[in-house]
Structures are given as structure tokens and as C-alpha cells.
Write a sequence for this structure.
């Protein structure tokens, strides 16, 4: 099998320094919604300037280059052991080249490893064998500030009066947005998982955010809730950076999972506007970056 | 847009109000979680004995921070091997994590402002009144853009905390911020929290 270390390094560079076009488009559109001369509008204009500058200079969009989350979809015949080693080698190299900030801190002894390689879980890698000839590696760099304002609810939740149904889901998601204020670097994107256990629920709430902005869940009930949550979140007037304004949430993605009869979890993953996710496809000899 | 250069006088600070746009210039120091904990434990509450170069750094900080600004930032820095440091990406980190420490640090070192994102709470707001000082909000995530305003990295302390947590002494030119907490008890964050809670309650009642 082909050694992909250099291609993965390039994937990391692109993810850290070049915001995906669908996210950039949403941010540009939101400028017009904010009043001329307002602090909210000024914030969005600075954000757009920063996006252009990072791309031109290959410097990180945000100094917090986040938790690296890899999803590797591989055809039969690829070795996940080798791919993992290549991902880790690329991550170390990307840190040397300053595409990534050294971000792996030992939680017990407090030392920063300096190369973005922690234990087996850092970077986080999910492997999935697929029935295809193409290998696809997706990378999300998930910021820490927005991760800190992500929340998980166990329904029923008496504090917000949320029962075990979609009406209850709506209530807790809105509560999470209000509690986040600007601290997750609004305008944010919401990834919501309904069901699962505590672990799978959080994982799926991130996974759902790999899909493109504006695409809706196939289930019409969830599609409607996605749109409603984005609209109602914006009615709260939190605005970019929490300065106040019309743009608080750019999009909402929901996924439904199986749950135990006893449990009803709702996980809300909040992602900052610096919604960094990119894709690498290996199609035979061809290398394609999105 | 007001232009302010460190060191900053109390008069200039008292003149600032929530909503003011400011371009900051001059020398400031980055400090985030590890640095705040270290300053509080070693020099302010003194629950930990000074070790290594602690006292030497303390003397330098007393001069550097007097009238100056603390920046909540964990930068991406090039030149770590040559010590020819340059900031490549340097936006603000979430400030609320320093809420337990900030007011005491501001008062101890006579810090006139902290730059960060997301705002801070009641304890820091009271600290802003007493010091006096203000909270300057920078644009979160605008790291490449803000790094361009850092024209010089003159020193670094506590690099053993790791690059993001070290205390970097930097000189900035026209660093753009908005005052969101002033020295008169005003906080944009408290206002938005309250108004958004009101809307949330209406939405939840539907």
C-alpha cells in the first residue's frame, strides 16, 4: 500500500489554514444581516479578513488548532496499523511546521508532549471499512473553547421542563445555546445526537457535523427541527462573540440513535465559526483534496 | 476608534466605557491557565514555595505588568529552536477560566486591562472597579489576523509550561479590541446573558 504521510500532512495544512467554502459562504452572508457600524458586524468582517489571510499565508485560522479528529473510510486491503502510524507521523511533522500548535497535554502530569501525540487517543482516529475502491480520510480540528460549552442532557430535564420527545430535545438545545453565550466563539454550528449511551451520543454529535452546511436530515421531522433550532437560536440575540446581534448559530445538524428504554440522552456539540473540516480522497493513483 | 498605548493611566481606563472600540499598542504579556494558577499560588496566596527562576521572573513581571495588559492567549510560535520567536497565530482564548484568579492578579500587579474572549464574571467585574481596569474583548479565532499586530516577541517566561501556556512578552501595534467590561460596573456580557435568558424563557414556554 501507498505511504500517505505527505498527503495527510497536506490534509492537516489545508484543514488548519483554509476554512471550507460552505462555511465561509455562510459567514459572508451573515455580515449583511448585522447593522452597519455594529460591533457584531465588525467581528464578522474581522473573521472574514482572518479567513483570507490564513489561507494566503498557510497559518492556522485559530491558534487553538483543536482536537484532531480523523475519520478514515478504507477499502479492503489497507492496513489500519500502517495508516495510524502515517497519521501520527504526519501530525508530528505538521506541528514542526507550525500548521498545528502543540496541543496534547498529559492530564495527570500536566506536561505538553510538544508534538501533538498523546496516548493512543490523541489524535483521535476512527476507522471504518467501506465497500468502495477509494480511500477517504476526513479531518476535523475541533476547538477547545467550543468543546467546553458543549453539553449533554439526560431527559427528562426538570430545569428546562424537557420531556422525552422532540419537543424536549428542542428545549435542551436552546438551553445549551443560551448557556454558551459567546464563549464557544459564536456564530457556532450545532451537532446534536439524540439517544445512544453517553459516549456514543457525544461521538455521533460530532460525526454529524462532517456533512455540508445547509444539507438536511432525510427524516422530515428532524429536518424541520434543524431549521427551527437555527432560527430560534438566532432569536436570542447573543450574536457574534456574544456581542449581541442576529447571527448566533449558522446551522444545526441532528442525528437520531438507538437508546436504552431507561436512557434518553441529548448531546449538543458546539463548534466555533472556525469549523475546520477537510477531506482527502485516494482514487487509484489520484490524490484529491476537497 | 480610540488609540491607547501601554503603560496605561487610571484616567485613561476610567474614561473607557462598554462598547468602545480601541486599538492597543505597546508591551503586554500573555498569560492563561497555568500562568494564572502559578502567580496566585506562588506570589499572591503563597501556598506554594517559589522554585527555580520563580522569584527572578516575579521581579520582571512586577515591572512589565504595572500599568500594562495581560493577554489570554496560547499562540502558535515559530523559531522555538533558534529563539528567534515570531507569532504566527495568536487569537484570544476563553477568559472565564481565569475568573477565580483574575481580580487578585489585576490588583496585585496593577494590571490595567485583560484581553480575552467570552467575557468574565462578577468577581472580575468588581476587580475592574477596584483596580481600576477594563476587559478588552478581541475577536476569537482571528488568529492569523491578530498575529500580524504582534510586531515583536521580546522575551518568554515559563516555557516549561508548554508553548501555549508560557508567558510571552510581546509588543503590539494597533491590536483591535472592544471594551465589554468597564471600570464602572458595566458589562456587555451580563446584559446579553440577561436579555437572551428572557427570550429563552419565552421560547421554552411555547
Amino acid at each position: 500500500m501507498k505511504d500517505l504521510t505527505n498527503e495527510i500532512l497536506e490534509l492537516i495544512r489545508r484543514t488548519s489554514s483554509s476554512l471550507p467554502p460552505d462555511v465561509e459562504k455562510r459567514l459572508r452572508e451573515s455580515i449583511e444581516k448585522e447593522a452597519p457600524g455594529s460591533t457584531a458586524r465588525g467581528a464578522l468582517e474581522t473573521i472574514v479578513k482572518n479567513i483570507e489571510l490564513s489561507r494566503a499565508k498557510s497559518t492556522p485560522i485559530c491558534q487553538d488548532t483543536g482536537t484532531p479528529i480523523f475519520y478514515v473510510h478504507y477499502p479492503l486491503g489497507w492496513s489500519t496499523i500502517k495508516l495510524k502510524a502515517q497519521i501520527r507521523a504526519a501530525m508530528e511533522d505538521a506541528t514542526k511546521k507550525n500548521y498545528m500548535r502543540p496541543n496534547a497535554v498529559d492530564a495527570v502530569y500536566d506536561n505538553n508532549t510538544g508534538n501533538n501525540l498523546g496516548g493512543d487517543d490523541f489524535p483521535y482516529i476512527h476507522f471504518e471499512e467501506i465497500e468502495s475502491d477509494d480511500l477517504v480520510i476526513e479531518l476535523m480540528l475541533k476547538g477547545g473553547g467550543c468543546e467546553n460549552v458543549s453539553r449533554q442532557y439526560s431527559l427528562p430535564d426538570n430545569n428546562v421542563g424537557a420531556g422525552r420527545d422532540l419537543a424536549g430535545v428542542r428545549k435542551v438545545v436552546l438551553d445549551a445555546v443560551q448557556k454558551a453565550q459567546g464563549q464557544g466563539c459564536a456564530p457556532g454550528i450545532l451537532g446534536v445526537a439524540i439517544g445512544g449511551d453517553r459516549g456514543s451520543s457525544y461521538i455521533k454529535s460530532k460525526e454529524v457535523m462532517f456533512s455540508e452546511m445547509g444539507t438536511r436530515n432525510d427524516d422530515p421531522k428532524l429536518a424541520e427541527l434543524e431549521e427551527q433550532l437555527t432560527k430560534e437560536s438566532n432569536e436570542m440575540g447573543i450574536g457574534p462573540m456574544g456581542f449581541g446581534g442576529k447571527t448566533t448559530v449558522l446551522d444545526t445538524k441532528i442525528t437520531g440513535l438507538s437508546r436504552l428504554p431507561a436512557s434518553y440522552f441529548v448531546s449538543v456539540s458546539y463548534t466555533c465559526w472556525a469549523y475546520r473540516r477537510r477531506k482527502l480522497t485516494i482514487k487509484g493513483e489520484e490524490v484529491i483534496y476537497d | 476608534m480610540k488609540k491607547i498605548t501601554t503603560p496605561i493611566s487610571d484616567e485613561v481606563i476610567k474614561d473607557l466605557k462598554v462598547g468602545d472600540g480601541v486599538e492597543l499598542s505597546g508591551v503586554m504579556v500573555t498569560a492563561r491557565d497555568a500562568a494564572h494558577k502559578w502567580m496566585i499560588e506562588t506570589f499572591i496566596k503563597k501556598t506554594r514555595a517559589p522554585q527555580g527562576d520563580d522569584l527572578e521572573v516575579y521581579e520582571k513581571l512586577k515591572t512589565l505588568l504595572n500599568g500594562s495588559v495581560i493577554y489570554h492567549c496560547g499562540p502558535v510560535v515559530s523559531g522555538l529552536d533558534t529563539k528567534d520567536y515570531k507569532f504566527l497565530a495568536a487569537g484570544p482564548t476563553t477568559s472565564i477560566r481565569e475568573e477565580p484568579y483574575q481580580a487578585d492578579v489585576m490588583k496585585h500587579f496593577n494590571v490595567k486591562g485583560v484581553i480575552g474572549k467570552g467575557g468574565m464574571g462578577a468577581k472580575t467585574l468588581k476587580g475592574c472597579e477596584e483596580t481600576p481596569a477594563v476587559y478588552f474583548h478581541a475577536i476569537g479565532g482571528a488568529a492569523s489576523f491578530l498575529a500580524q499586530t504582534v510586531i515583536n516577541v521580546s522575551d518568554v517566561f515559563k516555557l516549561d509550561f508548554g508553548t501555549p501556556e508560557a508567558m510571552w512578552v510581546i509588543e503590539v501595534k494597533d491590536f483591535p479590541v472592544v471594551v465589554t467590561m468597564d471600570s464602572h460596573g458595566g458589562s456587555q456580557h451580563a446584559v446579553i446573558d440577561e436579555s437572551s435568558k428572557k427570550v429563552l424563557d419565552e421560547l421554552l414556554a411555547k
Remarks:
- Chain B is about 35% helix and 25% strand.
- Chain B touches chain A through 50 residues (CB under 8 Å).
- Chain B has one domain: 2-205.
- The mean pLDDT of chain B is 97.
